[in-house]
């Protein structure tokens, strides 16, 4: 019995016949139907997801870039503020040192003036004491001499 289009049960056909065109036609229809119903919607969904992912990734990268720039700007501002603070502190310390040195110089000048006044006062007191002691020594010498001699001593010249 002869079966049309190669539907023979126990035969292997190596020569292409009309079924080959039927198979190619079925495959082309399946590709068209699968593209229209399955692959295009899935590809559209995947493209949209990829766009959103890339968009979010790009947005995240831009945010990270902005954050990096702001952190660098903050660090620069912080360094500048520290430098300004250190300069202000150094300026104030130098001013305090100048004031301290000025006060020390004034105290030294006052101490030198006070010391000179005290030395002059001590010198004048020593001179007065020397004059007094010399007068007392003469008086005592006259008194001792008059006791030893048992007579009053008058008009004595002490050199």
The run of helices and strands is H
Distance between the terminal alpha carbons, to the nearest Å? 184 Å
Number of helices: 1
Helix content: over 70%
Strand proportion, as a percent range, falls in under 5%
SS elements, strand count: 0
Structural class: mainly alpha
Mean pLDDT, nearest integer? 87
Could you list the spans in which at least 5 consecutive residues all have pLDDT below 50? none
Largest sheet entry: none
Tell me the Rg in angstroms: 63 Å
Overall, the morphology is rod-shaped
Provide a short characterization of the protein structure.
83% of the residues lie in helices and 0% in strands.
Give an overview in words:
Helices cover 83% and strands 0% of the residues. The chain has one helix spanning 18-149. The longest helix is centred in the middle third of the chain and has 132 residues, at 18-149. The model has no long low-confidence stretch (mean pLDDT 87).
What key attributes describe this structure?
single chain, 159 residues
């Amino acid at each position: 019995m002869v079966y049309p289009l190669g539907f023979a049960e126990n035969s292997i056909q190596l020569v292409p016949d009309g079924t080959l065109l039927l198979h190619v036609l079925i495959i082309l229809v399946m590709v068209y139907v699968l593209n229209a119903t399955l692959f295009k919607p899935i590809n559209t969904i995947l493209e949209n997801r990829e766009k959103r992912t890339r968009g979010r990734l790009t947005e995240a990268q831009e945010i990270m870039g902005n954050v990096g720039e702001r952190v660098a700007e903050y660090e620069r501002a912080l360094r500048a503020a520290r430098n300004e603070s250190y300069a202000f502190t150094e300026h104030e310390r130098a001013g305090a040192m100048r004031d301290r040195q000025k006060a020390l110089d004034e105290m030294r000048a006052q101490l030198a003036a006070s010391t000179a006044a005290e030395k002059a006062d001590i010198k004048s007191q020593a001179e007065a004491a020397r004059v007094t002691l010399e007068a007392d020594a003469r008086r005592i010498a006259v008194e001792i001499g008059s006791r030893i001699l048992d007579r009053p001593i008058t008009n004595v010249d002490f050199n």
